[in-house]
Write a structure and sequence with these properties.
The structure holds 2 protein chains of 2 kinds.
Chain A (H helix, E strand, L loop, with lengths): L1 H11 L17 H5 L13 H4 L11 E7 L3 E8 L4 E4 L8 E10 L2 E16 L12 E16 L4 E19 L13 E20 L5 E8 L2 E13 L12 E9 L2 E9 L4 E10 L6 E6 L4 E5 L5 E11 L4 E10 L17 E11 L4 E12 L2 E5 L3 E2 L2 E2 L2 E19 L1
Antiparallel strand pairs in A: 1-4, 1-23, 2-3, 2-23, 4-5, 5-6, 6-7, 7-8, 8-9, 8-10, 9-12, 10-11, 11-14, 12-13, 13-16, 14-15, 16-17, 17-18, 18-19, 19-23, 20-23, 21-22
Chain B lengths: L1 H15 L25 E5 L1 H4 L8 H5 L2 H9 L19 E3 L2 E4 L3 E5 L5 E5 L18 E3 L5 H4 L16 H4 L9 H6 L5 E5 L2 H9 L24 H15 L5 E5 L8 H4 L6 E3 L1 H10 L1 H12 L5 H7 L6 E3 L2 E3 L6 E2 L6 E2 L2 E3 L5 E2 L30 E2 L1 H24 L3 E3 L1 H10 L2 E3 L2 E3 L18 H19 L18
Parallel strand pairs in B: 1-6, 1-7, 7-8, 8-17
Antiparallel strand pairs in B: 2-3, 4-5, 9-10, 11-14, 12-13, 15-16, 18-19
Helix pairs in contact in B: 4-16, 8-14, 9-14, 12-13
Classes of the chains: A mainly beta, B alpha/beta.
GO cellular component, one term (chain A): cell outer membrane
InterPro entries (chain A): OMPP1/FadL/TodX (IPR005017)
Keywords (chain A): Cell outer membrane, Membrane, Signal, Transmembrane, Transmembrane beta strand
């Protein structure tokens, strides 16, 4: 069952995703998403493999399985009043997914596995738009597979962790510069494409239950560097006599998937109400520059200079009846992008995020979890100042206004 | 529960359709102001510069990047309507007339195997045939090659007159065989117009090395040759008629003056001393001019020329870079005192002379079978290769008067005035900065001029468009946004 879901989910993943600070995608569980994506200290299902591998031993049931998908509908609107430019991105609908299973081996040990998609980006502007020298289209995806073990140290403290293998892919197209065409007037551009890029990392977690009502948690995920080697670089519409080789070119590039620290607390107010807070710190400062080295001897340096960023999450759960659990939440997501580095491939400023959702218990064992996330960005005037022509920085900027709506649906099974 | 899922899906669709909107959308009317002008129907009148001609041809991409088209796209922000142009078939350029080629394909830069660039004609045959006429009217009434008097010439679009009284480019979209450019422009009842005309009235004289005649004082253009300078009074009178016609319905507009033709790369690329030589070769060449040089002192003694002219005419090659030998019609005509034969009007070029761009592939080539007969060295260059100081003066005189006329009539008709002369002077002197560097008048690498050395690149045309927009905003209190020169192409590589 797990395997089948996993395979079909990968097929679904042919389109990819966007939205969360940088190219982080915070959509790793429907119940948690509904509560502002809190979960480090909310331990009620197999999603803990992602949210806190230390918490698995605190699960009540012998076996818990959950799976879900979160189609992303995102919009980018760009305008520049100096030149009268106005452009709307036509982003593909992206479908991050998550599959988790946890098994209580015995009273003091649990095992689990998670397959999830914490990083990705899918942005598509109209071809040859005003910023096409920076990006026409990008699709980034990374699937994490994480086997997990969790150990109960005593009734109050449990730890866990596991290795992660990340499998990534990239497809990125942009024009060579702001104006070059062949003699037929078609814009010169390049697509870099690679898939099956792998990297190893790990996740560690700790869950602490000082009282029946209060849970504290801490989770750390290591940084992984996705190294594309000998990927395909296809150049299109390059003038035929232009010096240089543009046939059968490959590329090397490295994209960091940054480390992340999460701490959280949840408190069960009474039998019906639960409140949760998470704080995430994402170590984006490892993303200094996107450097692409082509086998024809040329390279492309794109400074990013991201800064570490924080996310503040808040969630609320109300068990309305045996059948229904209702959830709501909010989080504030700081953008890792610094002034002057606002590239249209991930045009993100700080965002306010509103979530909600519910679980419907069909039976003792089986539940459907639904959630939604609405991401609101304030209108922002920003520019990317580090694109160069003739050795000179050529800023590209204007106003951006983005939003995204993400419905999310999943199922949980446990006994 | 099913209902809940349906509801959620519906909500998803509803919100997904909810595109983010700016407080003030630049694409909505009201963001920019048209001021006191009405841009509903814009008609551009002019010559090759208005048509979007570049790289010695009219071709599709050049037309898309014509300055009137750039302006029209910005006018669309303030109520401007559609802007039609007599588009060519493709990006090859050149023309056919009934299948016969009458204009060459465009020029492109070709790199050889060693990576050295050279300008060549695109090796494809033109496909645009002037017998395939277009359905007008055209908002872009720029006609390559047109001089001021051509705009009012009836029959300028008559296919029967191609080669004499008609223009193949106008043939393509003239409303009838008997119409004139200005008649077709006015018939569109423009609410706004631009007029940039007069360049060819001096330019064709200049680019032909001054082989034509300065027609100043001759008020009948019917007798003018194609390389002649138009009489400034003829210019003034027709210019006034054009503006009277274009403003007849109350239209507002903008006019541009005439840049210095002598600062374009067509004249500034080939240096006056382009011939490298070692001492041995120089001595050998000098021997061939020994008799001529000796004779000069004789003519000074005879009082036919002064010492200064004798020095100017002395031919002397030496080791290093050398000026070329030219025939200069403005030198004093001399005859051999004994035989009565004409003494050739020879001299070497100086820094005052302007050698035309095409001469770069002519100077130094053999003049015939005899390998010692080399063009520009042992064989003098003819008039067409060099614009001498005397010829430059004639061009400058006419230009000064044209520009005085344009400025005065712009004021008289309360039109926006665009000083393209100052702009080109800046390009030639210091260059014009843009967000990706500096545009200069240096051939090819300066990026402001296309490979014909006369017409701007699209980047250069963008500067022109901005100059128009700036003048229009200033005159009519509008707030039309500028274009970004950096976003347009420059020199094309094959």
């Amino acid at each position: 069952m797990i395997k089948r879901t996993y395979i079909s989910a990968i097929v679904v993943l042919m389109t990819t995703f966007a939205y969360a600070g940088g190219y982080r995608v915070a959509l790793q569980g429907q119940k948690q998403l509904a509560m502002g994506h809190t979960g480090v200290a909310v331990i009620n299902s197999a999603e803990s493999v992602f949210f806190n591998p230390g918490g698995l031993t605190f699960l009540d049931k012998k076996i818990t399985i959950s799976a879900g998908i979160s189609p992303i509908f995102s919009n980018i609107h760009f305008q520049n009043s100096q030149f009268g430019w106005s452009t709307e991105a036509d982003n593909p609908i992206a479908t991050p997914f998550n599959v988790y299973a946890a098994y209580k081996v015995n009273e003091w040990m649990s095992a689990g596995i998670g397959v999830y998609t914490p990083y990705g980006s899918g942005v598509e502007y109209p071809e040859n738009w005003e910023g096409s020298h920076l990006v026409n289209k990008i699709e980034l995806a990374a699937i994490y597979i994480q086997p997990t073990l969790s150990f109960k140290i005593n009734d109050k403290l449990s730890i866990g962790g596991g290795p992660i293998i990340a499998i990534g892919s990239v497809n990125f197209n942009r024009n060579i510069d702001r104006s070059m065409t062949n003699v037929s007037g078609e814009r010169a551009n390049v697509t870099i494409d690679d898939s099956g890029v792998t990297a190893w990392g790990y996740s560690l977690g700790l869950a602490f239950r000082p009282t029946e009502e209060l849970t504290l948690g801490l989770t750390y995920k290591s940084e992984m560097k996705m190294k594309a080697r000998d990927g395909e670089a296809k150049f299109h519409n390059i003038p035929s006599t232009a010096p240089g080789n543009y046939d059968n070119v490959t590329f090397d590039a490295t994209l960091p998937l940054p480390a992340e620290l999460a701490v959280g607390a949840s408190y069960m107010i009474n039998e019906k109400w639960l409140v949760a807070f998470d704080y995430n710190r994402v170590y984006w400062d490892s993303y200094e520059s996107l450097d692409v080295y082509f086998s024809n001897g040329t390279d492309s340096h794109n400074p990013r200079n991201y800064k570490n960023s924080s996310v503040y999450r808040f969630g609320l759960q109300y068990i309305a009846s045996e059948r229904f659990t209702i959830r709501g939440g909010y989080y504030y997501d700081e953008s890792p992008v610094q002034a002057g580095y606002f590239a249209p491939e991930t045009p993100r400023n700080d965002s306010n995020n509103f979530t909600g959702g519910l679980s419907f218990n069909i039976s003792e064992r089986f539940a459907i979890d639904a959630a939604f996330l609405f991401i609101h960005f304030d209108e922002v005037d920003a520019s990317y100042d580090h694109y160069q022509e003739n050795g000179q920085n050529v800023p590209f900027g204007g106003s951006y206004k983005n939003n995204a709506f993400i419905p999310s649906i999943g199922v949980s099974y446990g006994f | 529960m099913k209902n809940n899922i349906k509801l959620l899906a519906l909500l998803a669709l509803g919100l997904a359709a909810c595109e983010p909107e700016f407080d003030k959308e630049v694409s909505e009317s009201g963001f920019y102001s048209a001021g006191d002008a009405d841009f509903t129907t814009y008609v551009a009148v002019g010559n090759s510069l208005t048509a979007g001609y570049a790289d010695n041809a009219l071709y599709l991409q050049g037309q898309e990047n014509s300055y009137p088209n750039m302006i029209a796209m910005q006018f669309a922000h303030v109520g401007g309507g559609d802007f039609t142009q007599p588009l060519m078939n493709d990006n090859i350029g050149g023309l056919l007339a009934g299948g016969n080629k009458i204009a060459d394909s465009r020029m492109v830069l070709e790199f050889d195997a060693e990576g050295n660039p050279s300008p060549v004609n695109l090796d494809e045959e033109p496909t645009t045939d002037i017998t395939n006429t277009l359905e007008g009217p055209m908002n872009n009434m720029g006609v390559p090659g047109a001089k001021i008097y051509h705009l009012v010439a009836e029959g300028y679009g008559n296919i029967g007159g191609v080669g004499s009284t008609a223009n193949p480019y106008f043939v393509r979209f003239a409303s009838s065989a008997s119409t004139s450019v200005i008649a077709d422009a006015v018939a569109q009842d423009p609410t706004f117009f631009t007029l940039w005309i007069g360049n060819n009235d001096i330019l064709s004289y200049a680019t032909s090395g001054g082989v034509g005649v300065d027609r100043t004082g001759d008020t009948n253009p019917a007798g003018y040759g194609e390389n002649d300078i138009t009489d400034p009074n003829v210019f003034a009178s027709i210019y006034n008629n054009l503006l009277t016609a274009l403003t007849g319905n109350g239209a507002k507009g903008a006019v541009a003056n005439i840049p210095d033709v002598t600062s374009i790369p067509y004249f500034t690329t080939v240096p006056y001393a382009p011939v490298p030589m070692d001492e041995g070769t120089a001595n050998q060449v000098n021997q061939g001019y020994a008799d001529y040089n000796q004779a000069l002192s004789l003519f000074v003694l005879l009082g036919q020329i002064d010492e200064e002219e004798a020095q100017r005419r002395e031919i002397k090659f030496q080791a290093g870079q050398n000026p070329v030998v030219i025939l200069d019609e403005d030198l004093t005509p001399l005859k051999h005192p004994v035989t009565g034969d004409d003494i050739p009007n020879l001299r070497q070029t100086t820094s005052e002379d302007l050698i035309v761009l095409n001469a770069s592939s002519f100077i130094g080539t053999p003049a015939g079978e005899d390998p010692t007969q080399i063009n520009g060295i042992s064989v003098p260059l003819g008039d067409r290769w060099v614009l001498t100081p005397e010829e430059q003066q004639l061009v400058s005189n006419a230009q000064t008067q044209y520009n005085a006329t344009i400025k005065a009539l712009a004021e008289q008709h309360s039109l926006a005035f665009v000083d393209t002369r100052a702009m080109l002077a800046q390009a030639a002197e210091t260059g014009i900065p843009y967000d990706g560097g500096v545009l200069t008048s240096t051939y090819a690498t300066g990026k402001a001029f296309s490979l014909d050395g006369v017409h701007p690149t699209a980047k250069g045309y963008a500067l022109v468009a901005n100059a128009f927009i700036e003048a229009i905003n200033e005159t009519y209190n509008s707030t039309i946004p500028e274009v970004n020169p950096g976003a347009y192409p420059d020199v094309f590589i094959k």
